[in-house]
Structure formats: C-alpha cells, structure tokens
Design a protein that fits this description.
With 208 residues, this protein is mostly helical. 77% of the residues lie in helices and 0% in strands. The protein starts with a helix and ends with a helix.
Length: 208
C-alpha cells in the first residue's frame, strides 16, 4: 500500500500534496514547535479534520516533510554528480556550488530546517527518531574528494561541512542581509555564489 508521501508525489495537484508543500514552508519558517496543523490547514484552505485525515498528526506530517526533503536532496546530488564527473576539480567546485546554491535558494525550507536541527532539540522533544543526513560523504564523492562515499577523509568531510553551512547561512539569512545591502533577490543570489566560489576555489585547488 502506498504511503501518504508516495500518494502526494504521484498527484502533485491533490489536497494531500498541497498540504505537504505548505507544511514544508511553515516548518521551514517557524520550526516544528512554532508551527501548528491549524496554520497549515488555513494556508491550504481546508479544515483541520481534513488535514488529519490526509496526514494524521503533526509528527507524521513533519516526518513526511523531512523524508521528502531528504529524498529530493539525494536526487539533486545524483544530478550534480552526473554533471561534474570527470571534470577538473576547479570546474567541479564551480558547478557544484552553482547547482546546490540554486537548489537551496529555490527551496529555502531545506536550509532553515537543517539549521533548526543543529540548534534545537526538535527530534528529542517530539520523540521523532529518524535520520536527516547531511550527505557529507555523497557530496565529497561527487566532487571527487574521495574514492568512494564509504571512505571519506575527515579533512574532506570538514571542507564539505564548511561549504554546505556557508550556503545554508546565505539562504536562511537572505532577508536580513538583503535589507542591510539594499539589493534584490537575484543580485543577492549572484553575489552569494560568487563569494562562495571565491572562498572555496583556493582551498580545494590544493587537493588537485
């Protein structure tokens, strides 16, 4: 039997899928504790009983959001790997940064939820016990920093963590930083990517 998440993916125009998409946005903006199922239901234009019919309780919906994000990110990494495979390291860096930054800017809830996970006790407080991988090993392997994703040197893992955290912070802090610099979204994104490349080309170049 298909899970609610599988059903939502199969029919993107369904009420189930609309609830999931709105849940991603709300959980990404307010976190688990700051989001209520009533908020999600109101945004979707349905009553609370309909939301529970489609997804069960808040914990079930939150878990579905995390699984959806996890699967989407994993697929994005597969796509990036296919584009960078066999290229010189400098090109892999540029393409990977462009691709991942664009993806995360298009889906800001991913960065927000990742940072919520770092700095809150959401999983422990709610009793949710599932893994939200950072894909460190997969990214390192995709960029050619390790021979396989099961044996990634600590140095490479730390470099990937630094890179991903930089992107997360640029994405999650966009509204604040743009207000300081007085620039629009597209200009901000362009400068963010240029800055990321400036800082990471040199360190990774030493690995060539």
């Amino acid at each position: 039997m298909a899970t609610p998440l599988e059903k939502a993916r199969k029919n993107p125009d369904s009420v189930k899928a609309k609830i999931l998409n709105n849940a991603r946005k709300h959980f990404g903006e307010y976190g688990f504790h700051g989001t209520t199922t009533r908020m999600i239901a109101n945004t979707t234009g349905i009553d609370i009983s309909s939301l529970h019919y489609h997804w069960g309780d808040k914990v079930n919906l939150f878990e579905a959001v995390i699984l959806d994000i996890t699967d989407g990110t994993r697929q994005k990494l597969v796509d990036v790997e296919s584009k960078v495979k066999g290229l010189p390291l400098a090109e892999r860096i540029d393409i990977a940064l462009d691709e991942m930054a664009d993806y995360l800017f298009e889906n800001p809830e991913i960065s927000n939820l990742t940072l919520f996970r770092y700095f809150t006790k959401t999983r422990e407080d709610t009793g949710i016990d599932f893994n939200v991988p950072e894909f460190i090993s997969d990214i390192a392997f995709s960029m050619g920093l390790a021979e396989n994703s099961n044996e990634v040197p600590v140095e490479a893992q730390m470099q990937i963590i630094a890179m991903m955290n930089s992107i997360y912070n640029f994405v999650s802090g966009e509204n604040f930083y743009r207000s300081v610099m007085k620039i629009d979204h597209e200009e901000y994104k362009k400068h963010a990517k240029e800055t990321l490349k400036f800082y990471y080309r040199a360190p990774f170049k030493d690995l060539e």
